[in-house]
Amino acid sequence: MNLAADPQRRRCYRLLLTWLWVTLLVLGIEAIAGWATRSLLLFAEALHTFIDAFSTVLSLVAVASAQRPLGREVWGHGRAEVAGTLAAVSLLGFTGLSLVFTALSQLFSAVTSSADAFRVALDRPVVYLMVVLLALSLAIAAYAYYRIQDFGSLALMLHTQHVLGDVWLSGVTLVGLIAIWQQQTWVDPVLAVGLTVFSISSLWQVLGDQLPTLLRPMAIAPEAIAQIVTQIEGVTRCVRIRSRGLVGRQVWVELHLIIHPEFAGVAHIVGERVEAALRLQYGPLRAQIWVEDAPPNQAAYLQYPQTEWTEPESTPDNWLEGG
User: Fold this and answer.
1) Phi, psi of 292 (to 5 degrees)
2) What's the protein's topology in the membrane (predicted)?
């Protein structure tokens, strides 16, 4: 199953991808504007926008991963997700601490020195630009909120709730920029510190809400599956069992069968019986079944000493997949 086979999920993926590009565009403009105007508040808002982009990426991964029912990424957080999360948190932590130290340094200089410690200089076009960017972000968030019920995506819902829940921070930023434009330059470091602190709280909420969507919990206990499978004629053992999904709606199962050598020629029939038994017990189910022969026991070695016995490969080449 792929994205093309599910139009609803494909539209959700496209919406999130468009949202990501818009967020990255806003992030770039805010960073450039902050550099040009030396505004710590704009840098702090860019940091907050980066968290929104990170949230969008997590939602994209969650939507796309659901279409890989038998890949390694569906069983938990893959190395890519873990590495990406660590990199994002490290970058945000370093940038946030740098902003806070710079803002506090400016405030300390303003208190201890008569010289103008606030170097920010905003013009009217910058304020207008931020109004446009805020309106653009709100427009796409409102559209996503309007289409949540149609898409039925938990990842999209969590991301939309996060963005709309933090919209007041963008409003505070806009008010602060207007105040700076009116020569109230002390507002810049003060609001930069406050926005950075709230951004850390926002990041923690994103990690708590969206990372679990990348984790596919076990649907059926391996012991229960093994008990059913080993009752099928020809099956000696069942190992490396994995499952995910929701019992009664759709379950994906991956398992390795050890079958008796006498049933090697009818391995596909054994696999079909295993899948039928699992489907009878748990309802709609898709299975990927790997089959390998059981090694002969010690009595066989003693009874036929001239026979060349071969050990099964650790990773079998023969497998059966049920739809």
Assistant:
1) -145, 150
2) Multi-pass membrane protein
DSSP secondary structure string for all residues of 147-162: HHHHHT-HHHHHHHHH
d(CA 63, CA 127): 36
Helix H or strand E segment including 293: strand 285-293
CATH class of 222-321: alpha beta
pTM of the model: 0.63
Q: Where in the chain is the domain with CATH 3.30.70.1350?
A: 222-321
Q: Measured between alpha carbons, how far is 104 from 127 in angstroms, rounded to an integer?
A: 24
* Alpha helices in the chain, H assignment, sequence order: 7-37, 40-65, 79-112, 124-151, 154-165, 167-181, 187-210, 222-229, 267-282, 298-303
Question: Tokens representing 266?
Answer: 């009818």
Write the pLDDT tens digit of every residue in 115-168.
566 778 888 899 999 999 999 999 999 999 988 877 777 788 888 988 998 888
